[in-house]
Design a protein that fits this description.
By secondary structure, the protein is mainly α. The chain is built from 18 helices and no strands. Bound molecules: protoporphyrin IX containing FE.
Length: about 475
């Protein structure tokens, strides 16, 4: 990378920025899930690595959360945007050089921020927006804005008539996430406290998921499925309905994260209704993608990228069903603050979103490096480690959450709840460690693809070759 940072843009090979973002995202996925596995071990085996504040669970939990959200997920998004936006517009990325600097400053900034947080405890104390405001501003101006500029200018320079659904989402999400960062972190800029701070903290957390992670993950599937199956998208109109209903219904119900807080009851009722209406974009997205698969379902078994993407899409069904009913007063008072919520967060991030990003990184890296995947067997091993590992995580934490909820409601002594949920804490650690292990194998497989993968002849696509075996 360093040799290209100071090169002329025209001397930088096409796709370089996306390739570096691809490898960075996989490395952060390994680091982030490794931290997750370590944290889970702390909850499964309380005597594991004690005696130093640096390895205390309360100290490391947010390092995990920020590493996987702003390392793995968001860098995989940057890779997908720099790979897909130019292809759809039948043009080149506006600036490979800006893309490379974006990648470099992103890695440096995130490493610095997490090191300050991990070793010195420098953080805001606000969940999901744990970085202190100077880091938030660094993220907006050196990470999000350069990314948005590169995406917008590439779309502006497109050599196609209209703008395809995926690029609609990419352009909007890069704009919306910057707004979310500036408004969501305003409590730190303006020293807002009390309920206002609590509400904006969860408005930030909710909208990082609702206006960044959910739309961009969906946008990737709108490209991967038609590209690999060869089927046109089932309906652009449903795509537009999905787009606008995400913006309207997803951006507003942040109060559903605070149903037990002393917020005005009308705000909670409004959030609950909006929270149920999130089913509109969810149904639009899932039906549009599954109908695009018509006649190509054999690829769900045979093709790695389709397998990952469709699995992620199918996870949107339990995710939004859960999301819809768990935020109503009737259910929320039981599951709030329990492992059920942790399970739900991982269904959204490690399930729904991650499976679609993994597919985009597999497809994008092979296409841009012009090399066929080194080992399909290792690719399938990765798929099953992620799916079985995640499922074990989700089921065990959902059960632990129900036990904790019952313990809370029926005032069962705390230690009895801890004992009852202990086997599920161990199961979660096993499941999460399978995910971590699968990611190490993935990193090896992609590294070997770059070094020794079969060269893809001009005019051919990796998924065609993979399909031919
Ligand atoms: C894409 C991958 C992942 C993402 C995006 C992710 C994200 C998150 C988020 C957002 C939370 C906070 C949940 C909440 O408070 O509601 C969390 C907590 C946690 N995650 Fe992950 N995670 C990922 C993978 C993993 C893996 C593989 C493990 C391994 C076991 C893991 C272990 C944990 C643990 C132990 C917690 C703390 C839960 C608690 O406070 O009780 N995560 N993660």
């Amino acid at each position: 990378m360093f040799k290209y940072l100071f090169a002329k843009n025209e001397d930088i090979p096409t796709g370089s920025a996306a390739i570096y973002f691809g490898f960075s995202s996989i490395i952060w996925f390994v680091i982030g899930t490794g931290l997750g596995s370590f944290n889970a071990a702390k909850l499964g085996f309380p005597d594991f690595v004690t005696g130093s504040f640096v390895f205390a669970f309360g100290h490391m939990r947010q390092v995990h959360v920020m590493a996987v959200i702003f390392g793995w997920i968001s860098m995989a998004f940057a890779m997908a945007m720099m790979y897909i936006t130019p292809i759809i517009g039948n043009t080149k990325l506006w600036s490979e050089k800006l893309g490379l600097w974006n990648c470099f400053l992103w890695n440096v900034g995130l490493t610095l921020a997490l090191t300050l947080m991990w070793t010195f405890g420098i953080e805001s104390g606000r969940e999901y927006s744990d970085f202190p405001w100077p880091i938030d501003l660094y993220i907006v101006f050196f990470i999000l804005f350069p990314l948005a500029l590169n995406v917008w200018m590439t779309i502006k320079n497109r050599r196609t008539q209209g703008i395809y659904t995926t690029n609609w989402f990419f352009a909007a999400a890069t704009f919306m996430v910057a707004i979310v960062f500036l408004v969501g972190n305003s409590p730190e800029f303006f020293h807002l406290t009390g309920l206002t701070e609590a509400y904006l903290t969860w408005w930030f957390a909710h909208n990082v998921l609702g206006l960044w992670i959910t739309p961009v993950a969906a946008a990737i599937a709108y490209y991967t499925i038609p590209k690999v199956t060869g089927n046109p998208l089932y309906s652009h109109r449903i795509g537009h309905l999905h787009f606008w209903s995400v913006v309207v219904f997803y951006s507003t119900p942040a109060a559903h994260h605070l149903m037990s807080a002393p917020l005005p009851e009308w705000l909670k009722s409004f959030a609950s209704v909006e929270g149920v209406l999130i089913l509109v974009p969810a149904i639009a997205f899932v039906s549009n993608i599954l109908l695009t698969m018509q006649g190509k379902w054999h690829m769900f078994v045979e093709n790695l990228e389709i397998k990952f993407t469709v699995t992620g899409v199918l996870m949107a069904i339990p995710l939004n069903m859960q999301g819809g009913f768990q935020q109503t007063r009737a259910i929320n008072w039981y599951i709030h603050g329990t492992g059920w919520i942790v399970a739900h967060a991982h269904l959204a991030l490690l399930g729904f979103s991650t499976f679609m990003e993994v597919a985009a990184v597999y497809l994008g890296m092979q296409t841009l490096m012009r090399r066929k995947l080194y080992s399909i067997a290792l690719g399938n091993f990765h798929y099953w480690m992620l799916l079985i590992g995640f499922s074990t995580y989700w089921i065990s934490m959902t059960i632990a959450g129900l036990i904790q909820g019952a313990g809370k409601i029926y005032e069962v002594p705390y230690i009895d709840v801890v004992v009852a949920e202990h086997p599920y804490m161990i199961a979660r650690w096993i499941g999460g460690t399978m995910v971590f292990t699968g990611n190490i194998v993935w990193l090896y497989n992609m590294w070997m693809t770059a070094r020794a993968g079969t060269v893809i002849p001009a005019g051919r696509q990796p998924h065609e070759l993979a399909y031919e075996r």
